[in-house]
Recover the amino acids of this structure.
C-alpha cells in the first residue's frame, strides 16, 4: 500500500493499474470508477486508516482491451509494472517488495498500440498556446511520428482544429478562460487537458524540444515563433510524462503556412461530411466514397489531403501530373497496388519500436516494407523509360513527384545492409510476444544456436531418463513439466505406493500429493531441470540482446525509413486517385489563378455512388460562375421544388472544389477552377442547445461568419438562409445577404432558396442569375428531373412532397385548400419592386468598434507569464504598434 500510495501521488488524475503477478489491480476511488466503467466486480482488500480498501482487477493479458475502454470513456490510465523479477526481490529478503514503476500513461492522444487505434484514421495530440498575442497550434501523431505546427488567427481556430480533429488537446491554463477559444476547444478539441502556465514558457519549451529530438539547436528545422515553440514545448512535456521518459522517433516539426491551404471552417467541414457524416460515421462521407488506397498510411494521407486541400496552383498541378501519368499505365498501377497491399503499417511499427513497445514482428514489418519499397522503385523506374515518347513523338518525362518517390525508395547502402541483416536474423513469422523467444533464425548467431541445442539435447536426455527409470523400476514412469515445480515424475496413487515400497535407496523424493496423483523428483532430475532452464534462459537472453541490437540499428535509420514510408503513402494515394479517375471517368481539373468555376456535367461523388449501387441514375449538372462577373454570373440563385436536388447540387460543387484542390481528378466532364482560398457552406445547421443556441441562432452565427470572413477568392454555398424564422424576416435577411455577397464580397456563390421572390434579383443585380432544379407534374404525380437549368422555379410543390412523405390525406387536402386561398390573397404578395435598388451598398451603420491591433495584442498578454526581459520586449513591440 505504501508503494501504491507513493506512485499514485505522482499521477492523481489517472486511473492507476498496478501490476500484481498476472493481474493489474486497481484500488480506492479508481477501483470504484473502473468497476463501473468496465463492469468489474468490486471487492476489498485490507484496510487503510481503518477503512476497507476497494479493489478491482483485470488480467494482465487482457489489459489492452480494458485500457481502450477507459480511454474511450475519457479517462487517463497510468500503467505501473513490475520492474524486476520477483526472484530478484526475494534475494533482498523474504519481505522485500518487488520494484514497481510507471511504464506509461495512456491517454487518448498518445496511443500507439494497433489494437487501440483506428487503422485508417489519425490519432492526434494537439497543443494550443499563445505568446505576445499570437496563437499557435502544434500537433503530433505519435503512432506515425508526424509533427506539425502553425500560427492561427483566432477566427481560424475552429477551421484548423476541425481539420486536425484531435483526440486530446493540451491547453495553456489561461486560454481555458478565453470566451472565444474555450467553446471551440470543447467542440473540436477531443479530451481537454489544461496545462500549467509554467510549461508554456518558450525557453524551457525549447530545451524540452532539444531533448526530444536529441539535437543541440532547432535551427536545422527552420524558424519558429515563440508561440509555436511554446506549443511544441507543451507537446514535448506531455510526451515525456506519458511515455515515462522513452523518446519516440518523431519527424522534425513541419511548419504549416495557412496561406498555402484552402481553409474550410468547422461548420462547413461538418456539413460537407468530408471525413464523417453528421452522425459521426465514416460510411456515407466523402472519404468513404473515394478512398481506393490499399495501405493504412495511404488512407491517412488521403484523409489529410482532403482535410487540408492546397491553394497554390503549381502544387495542385504537381499532384495532378502524377495521377495523369499513372492513369494510362494500368499494368503498372496493378503491380504497384498488388505490392503495396501486402504492406503492414510500417510507421506504427517504427513508432512502437522506438517506444520499446515493439516486438520481433515490428522488425519484420520494417524489413518487408524496405523490400517492397525497393520493388516499387524498380517498377516505377522501368516505367519511366518504357514510353520515352508519346503518340505525337513528344518526349514523355515522368512527373517530378514520381522522381521524388523513386529517390526516396532506393535505399542507401547502410539501409539495404540493415534490411539484409533483418531478413537473415528473423524467422518468417515471429511469435507475438518477445518473451516467448524463438524469433531469431537458426544459423544467425553461433552462441544462440549452441544454447538452443543444449536446451534441445537436454530434452532428449529427459526422455532417455524417463525410459531408464521405467526400465529400472518396472513402473511406467512419466516425466512432466509445469512452471511451479519444473520437471517432475507423476504417478497414480497406486503406482506411487508401489514405487515407494521398492525404493530402498530413497532415490525418489516426494514433492506433492494431489487427489489422485503423487509427484516425485530425483536428484538427477533436479540437476537436469536446472541445466535445461539455464540453457533456455541463456538462449532467451541472447535473443533479447540480438533484438535490442537490431532495434537500435532500426532506430538509427529511422529518418530514412520514414522518408521511404512517406513516399509509399504518396504513391498509394496517387495510384488510388488514378484508379478512381478511371472507374468514374473523371476529368483532370484545369487549375489557375482566375476567378472562374466552370464545371460541365459534374456529379456528387457520394450521392452518385449511392444511387449507382441501387442501380439508379444520377443526373449530372453544370455550374458556371465568375467572381469578376466578366464571363458569367457571380451569384446563382437556385430555386426548385422540395426534393428536387438543390442541396445535392450545392454540396456537389463544393466537394468537387475540395477534390480538385486536394490534387484529385473530379467526377465531371470538365472543370475549370480559379483556386479558392476559403470554402463556406451554410447547409442545414442543427441546434446547439448545449451552447444555448437555437437552430435559427446557429444559422445566423454561421452566416455572419461567412459575411465577415469571405473574400472575392472564396466559394460559398448557402442553403435556405432565413428559413427558421417568420417569412418576412427570413426573406429580408436572405435578400440582404445575397446583395451583400454580390455587391461587397464578390465571392462565387450558390444560393438556394424557397423564397421565389428572390429570383427578382436577376436583372436587378448585375452578376446574378437564376437556376432551377426541375420537376414536372404529371397526372398529379411529381417527377423530379434533378436537372439544373437557367431560370427560376415558380413553386415549391411542398404539399405534394408532404403527400409523398405519407402525411394523412385529410391533412394534405386541407393544406392544398389553404395554399390555394393564400395564393389568391393578394395581400400576402410582397411588393418587392418597391425595395430600393443597390441597398447593399448603403454605408454601413456604425458597427460595434473592432478592436485595434494594439488592443488585441494587449489583451493577449498575461503579465504573470512574462519575465522582466520579455516584458521589456513587449513594451517595445507595443510602442512600435502605436506608430503603425
Ligand atoms: N442530380 C441528381 N440525380 C439524381 N438524383 C438526385 C440528384 N440530386 C438529388 N437527387 C436525389 O434527390 C434527393 C433530394 O435531394 P436534395 O436533398 O438535394 O433536394 P432539395 O432540393 O435540397 O430538397 P429540399 O428543398 O426539400 O431540402 C437526394 O436524396 C437524391 O437521392
Amino acid at each position: 500500500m505504501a508503494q501504491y500510495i507513493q506512485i499514485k501521488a505522482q499521477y492523481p488524475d489517472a486511473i492507476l493499474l498496478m501490476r500484481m503477478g498476472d493481474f493489474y489491480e486497481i484500488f480506492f476511488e479508481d477501483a470504484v470508477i473502473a468497476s463501473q466503467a468496465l463492469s468489474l466486480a468490486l471487492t476489498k482488500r485490507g484496510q487503510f486508516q481503518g477503512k476497507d480498501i476497494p479493489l478491482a482487477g483485470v488480467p494482465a493479458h487482457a489489459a489492452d482491451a480494458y485500457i481502450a475502454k477507459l480511454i474511450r470513456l475519457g479517462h487517463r490510465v497510468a500503467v505501473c509494472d513490475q520492474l524486476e523479477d520477483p526472484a530478484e526481490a526475494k534475494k533482498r529478503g523474504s519481505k522485500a517488495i518487488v520494484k514497481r514503476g510507471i511504464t506509461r500513461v495512456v491517454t487518448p492522444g498518445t496511443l500507439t498500440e494497433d489494437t487501440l487505434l483506428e487503422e485508417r484514421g489519425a490519432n492526434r495530440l494537439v497543443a494550443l498556446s499563445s505568446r505576445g498575442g499570437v496563437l499557435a497550434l502544434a500537433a503530433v501523431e505519435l503512432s506515425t511520428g508526424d509533427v506539425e505546427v502553425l500560427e492561427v488567427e483566432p477566427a481560424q481556430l475552429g477551421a484548423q482544429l476541425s481539420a486536425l480533429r484531435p483526440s486530446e488537446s493540451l491547453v495553456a491554463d489561461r486560454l481555458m478562460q478565453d470566451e472565444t477559444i474555450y467553446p471551440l476547444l470543447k467542440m473540436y478539441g477531443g479530451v481537454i487537458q489544461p496545462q500549467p502556465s509554467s510549461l508554456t514558457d518558450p525557453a524551457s519549451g525549447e530545451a524540452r524540444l532539444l531533448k526530444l529530438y536529441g539535437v543541440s539547436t532547432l535551427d536545422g528545422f527552420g524558424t519558429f515563433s515563440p508561440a509555436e515553440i511554446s506549443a511544441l514545448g507543451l507537446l514535448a512535456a506531455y510526451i515525456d510524462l506519458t511515455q515515462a521518459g522513452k523518446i519516440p522517433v518523431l519527424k522534425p516539426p513541419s511548419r504549416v503556412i495557412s496561406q498555402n491551404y484552402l481553409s474550410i471552417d468547422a461548420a462547413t467541414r461538418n456539413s460537407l461530411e468530408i471525413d464523417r457524416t453528421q452522425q459521426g460515421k465514416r460510411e456515407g462521407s466523402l472519404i468513404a466514397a473515394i478512398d481506393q488506397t490499399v495501405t493504412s498510411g495511404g488512407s491517412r494521407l488521403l484523409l489529410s489531403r482532403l482535410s487540408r486541400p492546397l491553394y497554390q496552383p503549381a502544387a495542385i498541378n504537381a499532384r495532378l501530373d502524377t495521377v495523369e501519368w499513372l492513369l494510362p499505365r494500368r499494368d503498372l498501377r496493378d503491380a504497384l497496388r498488388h505490392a503495396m497491399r501486402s504492406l503492414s503499417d510500417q510507421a506504427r511499427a517504427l513508432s512502437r519500436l522506438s517506444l520499446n513497445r515493439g516486438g520481433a514482428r515490428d522488425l519484420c514489418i520494417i524489413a518487408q516494407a524496405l523490400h517492397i519499397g525497393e520493388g516499387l522503385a524498380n517498377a516505377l523506374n522501368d516505367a519511366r523509360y518504357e514510353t520515352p515518347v508519346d503518340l505525337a513523338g513528344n518526349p514523355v518525362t515522368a512527373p517530378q513527384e514520381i522522381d521524388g518517390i523513386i529517390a526516396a525508395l532506393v535505399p542507401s547502402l547502410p539501409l539495404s545492409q540493415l534490411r539484409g541483416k533483418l531478413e537473415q536474423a528473423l524467422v518468417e513469422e515471429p511469435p507475438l510476444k518477445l518473451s516467448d523467444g524463438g524469433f531469431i533464425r537458426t544459423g544467425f548467431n553461433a552462441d544462440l544456436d549452441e544454447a538452443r541445442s543444449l536446451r534441445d539435447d537436454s530434452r532428449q536426455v529427459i526422455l532417455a531418463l524417463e525410459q531408464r527409470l521405467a526400465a529400472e523400476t518396472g513402473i511406467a514412469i512419466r516425466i512432466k513439466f509445469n512452471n511451479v515445480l519444473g520437471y517432475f515424475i507423476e504417478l497414480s496413487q497406486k503406482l506411487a505406493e508401489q514405487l515407494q515400497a521398492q525404493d530402498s535407496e530413497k532415490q525418489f523424493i516426494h514433492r506433492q500429493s494431489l487427489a489422485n496423483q503423487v509427484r516425485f523428483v530425483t536428484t538427477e532430475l533436479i540437476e537436469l531441470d536446472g541445466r535445461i532452464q539455464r540453457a533456455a534462459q541463456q538462449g532467451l537472453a541472447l535473443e533479447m540482446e540480438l533484438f535490442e541490437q537490431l532495434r537500435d540499428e532500426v532506430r538509427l535509420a529511422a529518418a530514412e525509413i520514414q522518408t521511404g514510408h512517406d513516399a509509399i503513402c504518396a504513391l498509394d494515394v496517387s495510384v488510388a486517385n488514378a484508379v478512381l479517375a478511371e472507374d468514374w471517368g473523371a476529368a483532370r481539373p484545369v487549375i489557375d489563378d482566375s476567378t472562374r468555376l466552370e464545371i460541365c456535367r459534374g456529379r456528387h461523388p457520394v450521392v452518385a455512388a449511392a444511387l449507382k449501387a441501387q442501380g439508379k441514375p444520377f443526373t449530372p449538372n453544370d455550374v458556371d460562375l465568375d467572381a469578376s462577373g466578366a464571363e458569367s454570373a457571380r451569384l446563382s440563385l437556385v430555386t426548385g421544388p422540395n426534393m428536387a436536388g438543390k442541396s445535392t447540387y450545392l454540396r456537389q460543387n463544393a466537394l468537387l472544389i475540395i477534390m480538385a484542390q486536394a490534387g484529385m481528378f473530379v467526377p465531371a466532364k470538365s472543370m475549370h477552377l480559379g483556386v479558392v482560398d476559403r470554402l463556406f457552406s451554410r447547409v442545414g445547421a442543427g441546434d446547439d442547445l448545449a451552447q444555448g443556441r437555437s437552430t435559427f441562432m446557429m444559422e445566423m452565427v454561421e452566416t455572419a461568419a461567412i459575411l465577415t470572413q469571405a473574400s472575392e477568392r472564396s466559394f460559398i454555398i448557402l442553403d435556405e438562409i432565413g428559413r427558421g424564422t417568420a417569412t418576412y424576416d427570413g426573406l429580408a435577411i436572405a435578400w440582404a445577404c445575397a446583395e451583400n455577397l454580390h455587391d461587397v464580397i464578390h465571392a462565387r456563390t450558390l444560393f438556394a432558396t424557397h423564397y421565389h421572390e428572390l429570383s427578382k434579383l436577376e436583372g436587378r443585380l448585375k452578376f446574378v442569375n437564376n437556376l432551377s432544379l426541375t420537376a414536372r407534374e404529371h397526372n398529379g404525380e411529381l417527377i423530379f428531373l434533378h436537372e439544373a437549368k437557367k431560370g427560376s422555379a415558380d413553386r415549391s410543390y411542398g404539399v405534394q412532397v408532404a403527400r409523398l412523405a405519407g402525411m394523412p390525406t385529410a391533412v394534405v387536402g386541407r393544406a392544398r385548400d389553404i395554399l390555394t386561398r393564400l395564393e389568391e390573397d393578394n395581400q400576402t404578395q410582397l411588393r418587392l419592386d418597391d425595395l430600393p435598388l443597390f441597398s447593399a451598398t448603403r454605408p454601413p451603420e456604425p458597427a460595434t468598434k473592432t478592436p485595434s491591433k494594439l488592443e488585441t495584442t494587449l489583451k493577449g498578454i498575461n503579465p504573470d507569464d512574462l519575465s522582466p526581459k520579455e516584458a521589456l520586449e513587449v513594451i517595445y513591440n507595443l510602442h512600435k504598434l502605436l506608430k503603425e
